[in-house]
Amino acid sequence: MKQLTIIKPDDWHLHLREGIILKNIIKFSSDLFCRAIIMPNTKIPITTIEQANLYRNSIYAALHKKAKFHPLMTIYLTDNISLNELEKGYKNDIFFAAKLYPANTTTNSSYGVRNIKNIYKVFELMERIKMPLLIHGEVNDPNVDIFDREQVFIDKELTSIIKHFPKLKIVLEHITTSYAVDFVRENNIGATITPHHLHINRNAMFLEGLNSDFYCLPVAKRESNRVSLIKAATSGEECFFLGTDSAPHLKTMESFLWLCWNI
To answer: What 3-state class would DSSP assign to 195?
Structure first.
């Protein structure tokens, strides 16, 4: 064999933001990936077909003319999401999946679901039409330690969802713990893993002071968890796959001005 051709991979969890930021970062994903699942937690969340189409058009408009990149759009689940909009959008290939953010668990999640059991009717529909459910798997509870929020979500919410909707296609996103790795294997669901959580453990946030660049949600956990994630990511098991969770954040006004200058 004289030549090995590696196909362009897909990114199954990507944030592109909007406006100036989108225009400046899209090349980093489109150069490396063929497709990407685009997260819907924009400042005004993507909850309708019209919003999804407008957002997708803005992504295409920001791409280089010769870029070959296909954004897969998602709908942001809320307490009062339209079942008709969800079903119509999925059946017409507007929405690739639906995203569940428990309210106030991460960036731009204030519109998220406050009581997950109240949207079981949504999961019932999704199970019937075979629409994937993507989950930010953390609880927002001040009584729960930040390092335990993933495990508590699995025990409190995800176990119940699987029990009530055994045929629902579920992806637990950016998993961070050995507990999540074992749960995914045992319950026939999928999970994305980020390079970030393969690279560092929680010590990185506190090495020689506070390092905000290593703080993300969900936060990195113990070294034993990182090792479990590496083993899962390199296992060849189809239930584990790449979701970079690339998500730009501006640190200062100088960063914003730099983005403006480089359009």
So the answer is: helix
CA dist., res. 17 & res. 23, Å (int): 9
* Active-site option among 31, 141, 182, 245: 245
- What would the two tokens of residue 116 be? 């997950």
What is d(CA 111, CA 78) in angstroms, rounded to the nearest whole number?
6
Contact in structure between 240 and 232 (CB atoms under 8 Å)? yes
Known catalytic residue: 245? Answer: yes
Identity of the residue numbered 99: K
Could you list the beta-strand ranges (E) of 89-206.
Answer: 97-100, 133-135, 170-172, 190-193
d(CA 144, CA 218): 13
pLDDT digits (tens, 9 = 90+) for 49-98: 999 999 999 999 999 989 999 999 999 999 999 999 999 999 999 999 99
Q: What average pLDDT does this structure show over 118-122? A: 98
Q: Which of 252, 255, 173 is nearest to 216 (CA)?
A: 173
